[in-house]
C-alpha cells in the first residue's frame, strides 16, 4: 500500500531516460509542476524536440550511463528496453525517487492518473495493478468535475485568503468557510455577489 503525497518539485532536477511517447507524456506532467528536466536518449519524439527548441528542457543525445542521474531528485526510466531500465534502477541511489514505467516493483513511486481543475487535483491509483482502470476512473471524474469546478476552487482560495486576513472571530470564520463550500452555494453560480452579501450578514451578527 502506497503513501499518497503531493510533491512540490518546482525547480527540482528531474531526469527522464527515454525519448518516446511514454517519456513525452511524463514530461508534460513534469512541466506542469515546473520541474527542471533533462532527457537522456539517442532519439526523441517531435513533441520533445519542440520542447527542447523553446528551452523547456535539456536533451542529452546519448545512451544512458550512471552519471546521467547524479544529483537528480526524481529519475524516470521510460524506455522500451528492459535492459536500459534495469541499468537505471541499479544506478539510482536510495535517496532518489525512482519510477521504472514498466516495472512498478522496482520503483519507489509511481505517477497516478490525474484530473486537474485549477487548484483542484484528483489523483487515481490502482497501485500499478491496472493503469487502464485508473484511466477509466479519470475519464469518469473529468465528467463530474468540469472547468467550472476549477474556477469555483480558485474562488474559494481567494475567499479563504480574504477571510483569514480580515475576519478575526473564529466562529464567524467557520461559518463563512462552511457556507461557501456548500454544494448549493456552488450551484447557484453568483459566487462573488453571494459572498459579499454573506459577509454583510455574518459580520453584522
TrEMBL record:
Domain called Siroheme synthase central: residue spans: 117-143
GO MF term set: ferrochelatase activity; precorrin-2 dehydrogenase activity
Keyword Secreted set for record: no
GO terms under biological process: siroheme biosynthetic process
Pathway field: Porphyrin-containing compound metabolism; siroheme biosynthesis; sirohydrochlorin from precorrin-2: step 1/1
InterPro entries on file: Met8-like, NAD(P)-bd_dom_sf, SirC_C, Sirohaem_synthase_central, Sirohaem_synthase_N
Coiled-coil ranges from the UniProt annotation: none
Keywords: Lyase, NAD, Oxidoreductase, Porphyrin biosynthesis
Name this protein carries in UniProt: precorrin-2 dehydrogenase
Organism of provenance: Saccharococcus thermophilus
